[in-house]
Design brief:
Layout (H helix, E strand, L loop, with lengths): L2 E7 L5 H10 L4 E3 H8 L5 H10 L12 H8 L3 H25 L5 E5 L14 E6 L2 H12 L3 H9 L4 H7 L2 E4 L4 H15 L2
Parallel strand pairs: 1-3, 1-4, 2-3, 4-5
Main location: cytoplasm
EC number: 2.7.1.24
GO molecular function, one term: ATP binding
Length: 196
């Protein structure tokens, strides 16, 4: 692997738009959100670990994780959110390393992780791209996408590092407050700079 790129941003800033575009260009994507869902799936050791900490009421009758119930608990109590991360992160981390090994021969690989900085993954990557949008746009997108009240959406945003802090640490910032073509034009420019 010649380069591992960290792709991050805030919740509902448009990171998936950038990730999907890069994937369409044939770049392997290690998707931390997808991995999280995999390690918390029905019958997994990750789900059992969550149930031990947060109780069996987190498991629905069909054996799946009740994400809504868990979200209500952890996004209303920062100490419980930290506890959630401590419980599930070893499972996520193991799968991320497995996928990094799998894509070892690829010239460019993207680690798509919304909490790249918060969970200590930034040191693994060669450069970091942050997808940014203005705070009002972010709030409206999150409320619409997740059907959240302004209070609940604001809590979720505040549980992540500020976008400004992430931008200050980034190697590249993709601005995503305007149209999709304008966002993708920036991604294309960045990608061209990597393949020179």
């Amino acid at each position: 692997m010649s380069k591992l790129i960290g792709l991050t941003g805030g919740i509902a800033t448009g990171k998936s738009l950038v990730s999907d575009y890069l994937n369409e260009q044939g770049i392997p994507i290690i998707d931390a959100d997808l991995i999280t869902h995999q390690v918390e799936a029905k019958g997994t050791a990750g789900l059992r670990a969550l149930a031990e900490v947060f109780g069996d009421q987190m498991i629905q009758t069909n054996g799946e994780l009740d994400r809504q119930a868990l979200g209500k608990i952890v996004f209303n109590d920062p100490s419980k959110l930290k506890r959630l991360v401590r419980v599930i992160d070893p499972f996520i981390r193991a799968e991320i390393f497995k996928q990094i090994d799998h894509y070892f021969d690829a010239p460019l690989v993207v680690l798509d992780a919304p909490t790249l900085y918060e969970n200590g993954y930034a040191h693994l990557v060669d450069q970091v791209i942050v997808v940014y949008c203005d705070p009002v746009t972010q709030l409206h997108r999150l409320m619409k996408r997740n059907k959240l009240s302004i209070v609940d959406a604001t809590k979720r945003i505040k549980n992540q590092w500020s976008l400004q802090t992430k931008c200050d640490l980034a190697d590249t910032i993709i601005y995503n407050s305007d149209s999709i073509p304008e966002t993708l034009a920036q991604v294309k420019t960045w990608l061209a700079s990597q393949t020179k």
